[in-house]
Amino acid sequence: MSQATEQEAPPHPWAGQELEHLRDLLDEGRVKLGVHIRKMNSPGSPVYRYGENVIPAAIILTTSFGATALIHFYVGAVVLAIGCTWWVWKVQPRIKDGVFERSAAWVLEKPIQFDLMWAKGVLSLYAQLPDGRERVATRRDDWRAYVRSFHDDPGLAGTPAAPDPAP
Q1: Is 138 helix (H, G, I), strand (E, B) or coil?
Q2: Radius of gyration (C-alpha) of the chain in whole angstroms
Q3: Alpha carbons within 13 A on the beta-carbon side of 163
Q4: Which of 19, 69, 85, 140 has its CA 20 to 30 A from that of 157?
Q5: 3-state helix, strand, coil in the chain (%, to 5)
C-alpha cells in the first residue's frame, strides 16, 4: 500500500446512504424539499401530465367560443373570465400540489433520479435549525454534503445528542 492510501480520511458514516437519510430528515420535518414547479410541469418532464394541463384550458376556450358564436360576444367574454378565475383559484393550485407530490416521490425513489434533477436545477433543500440558523442547498451546492452535514449536529437525523458534562 502507498502512503497516500494509508493517510486518506475514513469515509463518512453516511457515505452512499445520503438519500435514505434525506428521506428521514424530510419525514422528521427537519429539511424541506423545494421543487421548481414550472420546470417539472413541462413536456418532457417525468411527472408531466398532458391531460391535467390541456383539458381544462381547452374546456374553458371551447365553452367561451361556443357562447360567443351561439349567444353573444359579451356572454363569451363573461364565460372566459369565469373560466380563467376557476382555473386560477381551483385548477392551478391542484396541479401545483400534484406536480410537487409526484416530483418529490419520483426524485426520492432513486439516487440517480435525484442527481439528475439536482443537476438540472429543479430541486433545492432548506432547513431552519433550532438555534435559528438556516441552511440552504441549491444546484451549485453538493446535496450529499448538505445531508451529511446533519450527521454532526446533536439531535438531528437520529444522531444522539452529546451528553451534558458532569458538574
Answers
A1: coil
A2: 24
A3: 3
A4: 140
A5: 55, 10, 35
pLDDT in tens, 44-66: 999 999 999 899 999 999 999 99
Mean pLDDT (the chain, rounded):
83
- Find the distance separating the first CA and the last CA of the chain, reported in whole Å: 47
In angstroms, the CA 14 to CA 79 distance is: 57
Average pLDDT of span 39-48? 92
SS3 121: coil
Amino acid at position 87, single letter? W
pTM of the complete model = 0.76
- DSSP-derived letter for residue 45 is S
In tens, the pLDDT along 12-37 reads 455 567 888 889 889 988 899 999 99
Q: How far apart are the C-alpha atoms of 143 and 66, rounded to whole Å?
A: 51
Question: Pairing mode, if any, of strands 123-128 and 134-137?
Answer: antiparallel
Count how many Cα atoms sit within 13 Å of the Cα of residue 61 in the half-sphere of its side chain: 5
pLDDT score recorded for residue 120: 92
